[in-house]
Amino acid sequence: MEIGFIGLGVMGQPMALNLARAGTPLLVWNRTPARAEPLRAAGAAVAESPEEVFARTRTVFMMLADGAAIDAVLRRVAIAGRTVVHMGTTSPEYSRALQAEVGAAGGRYVEAPVSGSRVPAEAGQLVAMLAGDPAAVAEVRPLLAPMCRESFACGAVPDALLTKLAVNLFLITMVTGLTEAFHFADRHGLDRRLFLDVLDAGPMASGVSRMKAPKLLTGDFSVQAGALDVLYNNRLIAAAARASGLASPLLDVCHALFDETVALGHGGSDMVAVLHAIQARSTPPPG
User: Fold this and answer.
1) Which CATH superfamily is domain 163-281 in?
2) What class of enzyme is it (predicted)?
3) Each residue of 189-214: pLDDT tens digit?
4) Considering the entire predicted model, what is its pTM?
């Protein structure tokens, strides 16, 4: 039976391609039809509308930008008898309400956000977090294998999304710290490559630092995880923290910096473009 996949953006397209290349019978749809052409070339069927996806499949993955994009699709389709798998990042409150709406319409709902950016998405090395009805989660989990190197059952909705937000809090503060350290070394006249080599040889090195450090070194701001998306995630995390009465001092600094990054016109660049905001706050070098 075909699996549906809606949303072929920076993350969705490589994820769907990995499903198709693994032999998963796939029916895809994207609002911008050109994004579906690589899927067609990989053997996936391309639907004319989301209505067609829901009519022909019983399980539909949705990798959409936000709640508004999800609502725009779901208000057009018949959900009864389908399992809706929400793989994007939204607020926990939205996901909880979506579960109720899907259930009321006769469908099943699985929350399945992923950790990782474009490069691990292309490599099938994402990490998935799942929440929802245990039987539905058990059915969906094996389908993730071509996209994800690991998956974790996190319990009830919205605990998968809360886990994803906690992971993203660490990611945002870590990459911002790496970028600030790079700026510090650069402005003190250090050999930037040597600094990054020292960092890579020590205990602070990670898969993320090894992905982002070369971009900083070469000034490559091509998108893996976009600054505007990071700001969106930052707002979600901050709202969840405030709702629970939690302080988030490091996140709040990052929130301001990414807000400034986007205001400077770098929203479509990779998250290491936060360097521009840090540079803008710094006193210009003499001479």
Assistant:
1) N-(1-d-carboxylethyl)-l-norvaline Dehydrogenase; domain 2 (1.10.1040.10)
2) oxidoreductase
3) 999 999 999 999 999 999 999 999 99
4) 0.95
